[in-house]
Specification:
This is Olfactory receptor. One of its GO terms (molecular function) is olfactory receptor activity. Keywords: Cell membrane, G-protein coupled receptor, Membrane, Olfaction, Receptor, Sensory transduction, Transducer, Transmembrane, Transmembrane helix. The chain crosses the membrane at residues 25-51, 98-120, 140-158, 200-223, 244-261, 273-292. It comes from Terrapene triunguis (Three-toed box turtle). The protein is mainly alpha-helical. It has one domain: Rhopdopsin 7-helix transmembrane proteins, CATH 1.20.1070. It has 11 helices and 5 strands. It has helices at residues 21-51, 58-87, 94-127, 132-135, 138-150, 153-164, 181-185, 193-226, 231-260, 270-292, 295-312, and strands at 6-7, 11-14, 91-93, 168-169, 173-174. The strands form 2 sheets. The protein has a 3-stranded mixed β-sheet with strand order 3-2-5.
Length: 313
């Protein structure tokens, strides 16, 4: 009987949010504003780091990579959602859905890797300051960045391939605003236990392992800071990693809320709202966190704005 329900799927329907047309317009305006702020803010961080020689250090090299990642991460899902909201066309092709899911998973793996790499950079800078220039040299930084960008690609290609080689039933409605593995597996006309097991392995390896490394780094960092004799020295040292800590809390905090929340809820779109928060809000807030709490970025912004005004005058 199961074979009779199988069908060749050429496209899916992304149901998105079950809201009225008026609220869809409000959601479109809000999402468009968030997306523009995210793109402009992160590109501005990249530009400032590129043009200001004072920011050509390992910490800001990793920050520029993180900002580029955030632009890509949000661009995988938000533009398609904006088009669906304004046009009412919720269709996405089979190949388009596979590409969206693959890129989303790869960028998620890359972000957790970069956050762990940035925590290691802070650990070396604070706990081994005399060896910092030698350990975090240009070659090592490029190698760490390249590893962070590519480490998740093979595994996520396999995961995506295993999902999209499943036979799908007659229903092609994905109860989400993008092609997430969990709602896609619900449409399969086959045993998905292997896919679910693989998902848990991926979350552990690309989510929990980097988080554990971040925790270990900050345990050593805090221990080193507490041994410093002066309160001013402690404050200045901790300020160099406070922005990174806030970004980590946003990324992993929203992820924990999304995946460990109770499944039974009286609010049908609650999971999708949390997923939207996890997808777009940390990326939008990152430029504000690093510009408002980082004196070097603030100084570079002022210096380059003054320089621009001088040339325009």
């Amino acid at each position: 009987m199961m074979n009779l329900n199988r069908t060749v799927v050429t496209e899916f329907l992304l149901l998105g949010f079950s809201t009225s047309p008026e609220r869809q317009v409000l959601l479109f305006v809000a999402l468009l504003a968030i997306y523009l702020v995210t793109v402009v803010g992160n590109l501005l961080i990249i530009l400032v780091i590129l043009v200001d020689p004072a920011l050509h250090t390992s910490m800001y090299f990793f920050l520029s990579n993180l900002s580029a990642l955030e632009v890509g991460y949000t661009s995988v899902t938000v533009p398609k959602m904006l088009v669906s909201l304004i046009s009412g066309d919720k269709r996405i092709s089979f190949a388009g859905c596979a590409m969206q899911m693959c890129f989303f998973l790869c960028f998620g793996s890359t972000e957790s890797s970069f956050l762990a790499t940035m925590a290691y950079d802070r650990y070396v800078a604070i706990c081994k300051p005399l060896c910092y220039p030698m350990i975090m040299n240009k070659k090592v930084c490029v190698l760490l960045a390249a590893t962070s960008w590519t480490i998740g690609i093979p595994a996520q290609l396999v995961q995506t391939g295993l999902v999209f080689t499943l036979p799908f039933c007659s229903s092609k409605e994905i109860n989400h605003f993008f092609c997430d593995p969990a709602p896609l597996l619900l449409l399969a006309c086959a045993d998905t236990s292997m896919n679910e097991t693989l998902t848990y392995i991926m979350v552990t390896f690309f989510g929990m392992v980097p988080f554990a490394l971040i925790l270990l780094s900050y345990i050593r960092i805090i221990a080193t800071i507490l041994m410093m004799p002066s309160a001013e020295g402690k404050r200045k040292t901790f300020s160099t990693c406070s922005s990174h800590l806030i970004v980590v809390a946003l990324f992993y905090g929203s992820g924990i809320l999304l995946y460990l929340r109770p499944r039974s809820s009286g609010f049908p779109d609650g999971g999708k709202l949390l997923s939207l928060f996890y997808t777009v809000l940390p990326a939008m807030l990152n430029p504000f966190i690093y510009s408002l709490r980082n004196r070097d970025i603030q100084t570079a912004l002022k210096r380059n704005m003054t320089r621009s005004q001088f040339f325009l005058a």
